[in-house]
Amino acid sequence: MTCAEFLALLDDLIDDSVSVGMRAELQEHLRGCEHCVVTLNTTRKTIEIYRSHEIYDLPAGLRERLHKAIMDRCKKGC
Amino acid sequence: MATIQPIAGELEPHPDVALVERVRGGDVSAYDTLVRKYDRQIFRIAQHITQNREDAEDVMQDAFLKAYEKLDQFQGNSKFYTWLVRIAVNESLMRLRKRRTGKMVSIDEDVETEEGSVPRDLADWAPDPEQNYSQSELAEILRKTIQGLPPGFRVVFALRDVEGLSTEETAETLGLSIPAVKSRLLRARLQLRERLSRYFRRKKGGEK
Fold first, then answer.
1. Is A2 on the interface with B (CB under 8 A)?
2. Is residue B7 pLDDT above 70, yes or no?
3. For chain A, first and last CA: distance in Å?
4. CA distance readout (Å), B122 to A15, A28, A38, B141, B168
5. The pTM is what?
6. Are B189 and A43 within 8 A, CB to CB?
7. Chain B residues within an 8 Å CB radius of A38
8. How confident is the model at residue A45 (pLDDT cuts 50, 70, 90)?
9. Any idea which fold B15-100 has?
10. Hey, which residues 46-75 in chain B have their CB within 8 Å of chain A?
């Protein structure tokens, strides 16, 4: 397996949607390719960091203001 | 708006369906529950697409109001949440187009870029690299990094990886094919990875 072939299946590997046979092939490639190990680990970490950090928070005051505006309009039938 | 397709294999009605039924029956307080359940996600998605706080506030209000007005069109064979996200995505794209008059803003166009598709930065990252930054510094890095992605990549990454929609739900929400979602997701992930490497790569001996 080449690095390009590995990369094409990277998402399937990360999302755990590869067959047992394909997973074994990917693991075999990883055993001999440090670059792809780094790409896999850092891509996983990228997703994890974006998932676990709130970068667009909705402050309580703003949330209540928007919420009230929405519900006031709904109660009037929009 | 295209017809929402049934989700294969989903036999049990989603708990939101009961809330929607109560709203349809005139119980506005049930809508209050739905708004509180999903307002943060809708605000976040709007921010991801518009990259503008005022626009995100407007999108959040407009999306919930539009969903309320159109509740009769919600068919109940799709999740209320993905139906709501679709409305919010459309509202967000409209706002983005207004701000970028004359510039093409579409999630349908296939973005021609090879960036990130062949990883160039192959340095490993420091263990727990986010620990080297304060919360506010880290949030700024993550915002700046995702802002640089084309809108069509950004929205797929946000829905799929941040909000946790499935590939099928993301495709349905955006009106894209599943291969298009997969292709954009891979490129978005690789581009973000490449850009974050500048901040998170393992420093050479002596560097701080």
1. no
2. no
3. 58
4. 22, 19, 7, 20, 31
5. 0.85
6. yes
7. 122-124
8. very high
9. Rna Polymerase Sigma Factor; Chain: A (1.10.1740)
10. 47-48, 56-57, 60-61, 64-65, 68-69
